[in-house]
Amino acid sequence: MNSNKPPLYKKIKTPLNYYIYDTWTNEILKVDPAVFDYLDDTDPPVSPNFPNVDEDYLATTEEIETAKKNGYFNMDYPSIDSFPKENIDLLIDNMVKEGPDLLILNITEQCNLRCKYCAYSGAYVYNRTHSNKRMNRDTAYKAVNWYLGHSERSEYHFGFYGGEPLLSFPLIREIVDFVKEKTGDHSEFNITTNGTLLNDKVCRFLIDQNIHVLISLDGPAEVHDRYRNNSKNQGTFSIVWDGISRLWNMNRDFFEKNVLFNMVLAPPQRIKEIQDFILANPDVFRKNSITISSLNPQPSNVMEHMGISNQDCLDTEGQANWIRQKYIQELTESACPDEFTSAYYNRQFVFIHQRSMTTMAKTVASHGQCIPGGRKCFISSDGKMYMCERVNYSRQIGSVETGIDRSAVEQLLREYNDFFKNKCSDCWAVRLCQKCYNNVSRGEAFSPEELEIFCSSRRNSLQRALTTYCEIREINNKAFDWAEEIVLK
Fold this sequence. Notes:
Blueprint: E1 9-13, E2 18-22, E3 27-31, H1 33-38, H2 55-69, E4 79-80, H3 85-98, E5 102-106, H4 137-148, E6 156-161, H5 169-183, E7 187-193, H6 200-208, E8 212-216, H7 221-224, H8 237-250, H9 252-258, E9 259-264, H10 271-279, E10 290-293, H11 302-306, H12 310-332, H13 339-353, E11 363-364, E12 376-379, E13 384-386, E14 398-399, E15 403-404, H14 406-420, E16 441-442, E17 445-446, H15 448-473
Parallel strand pairs: 4-11, 5-6, 5-12, 6-7, 7-8, 8-9, 9-10
Antiparallel strand pairs: 1-2, 2-3, 12-13, 13-14, 14-15, 16-17
């Protein structure tokens, strides 16, 4: 099995058994220790250490050769072609015709907080910083009318983003009224807010208009107030919690259906404190109401900005191991993980459990990227179009004056395709890995350095996830039956 190129499989060992994740079939194979020892998944590969050609060696090689004849341990590599040239025009045609699934209006760049890890804090080299820019009424209406002009859509989805979007509450209210007058019940709205401006008037509007609300809340006061501060460097937990409580008390049915929370796990990750806080407030935090986010991966001095040391990052590893053991224990005992543990882990395990166990095609895509302007279209405060809120201001793809710029989208897709043309094909994780433009770029340019950082981290993460998945299923084979019903978006 020795070769000059790394194989498309990964060895996985649990306390009880030995496994091989086989990329070409997307299967996880339970194997004998001899097969596990013989197979090499290093890069570059090394020769197997069998000093004597004995019966065990012959049996092992025979077993592997039989597996190869059945399609396993294929040493060929696929070609990577995410956006084939012959398909790009059709992809862009459909995107321009149908419009985005979600139009995000960056209603203001102003913010009443100065969160230390914020993407706009000044710690990120390629990002904008906070400013006094606000989207004016004319720009907002041009953006909305452009989106509503895609008449073949059955539903329209709008998002309000900032800065803190509720600083422009009058314009938000006007836009919602206008859209509902035009579309009736065929429109949906969401807003991402820091939760500090949830007064009675705002809460009543959110409830009456059935708006979906994503509130940034990092945990209890001692966690939240570390980094989510106002302009005077004061913690904001108490005012945010007051707003959350107000919304909950005004309409509990609305709250349960429409209110979600985004928690940024910034080092040192005080996971146990966050979990205790969530468990202490079951009426506020329900199943699937929490999203866990990490720090923006773009180049920055954010750790220095936050006052974080290397030791703080090492402490985070211990926290992650603690919750991993908790997750394993709960699922092996057929327990239902609590809200925070589910949010921390479920998505990656749902993706692994739902993977398609079919033979990989000879040409595959580098997974995770979208068609710019298709799934989302982000409108900046001055009316420029970008692909989404995560990579805003890096690659413009149009404007409210002219709509989508086909040539800009085409150039971006071709650059992405060329960037990955000779990458990923020799990676065992090619079928499990997902990435977006933000993971592999520096500013406007795709970056080999960022890709290398991302790939190393993702492979390590996937290997840990596969190990945990096997460890749980060998004790409780039905532990992930619930994952079959989850729809990933």
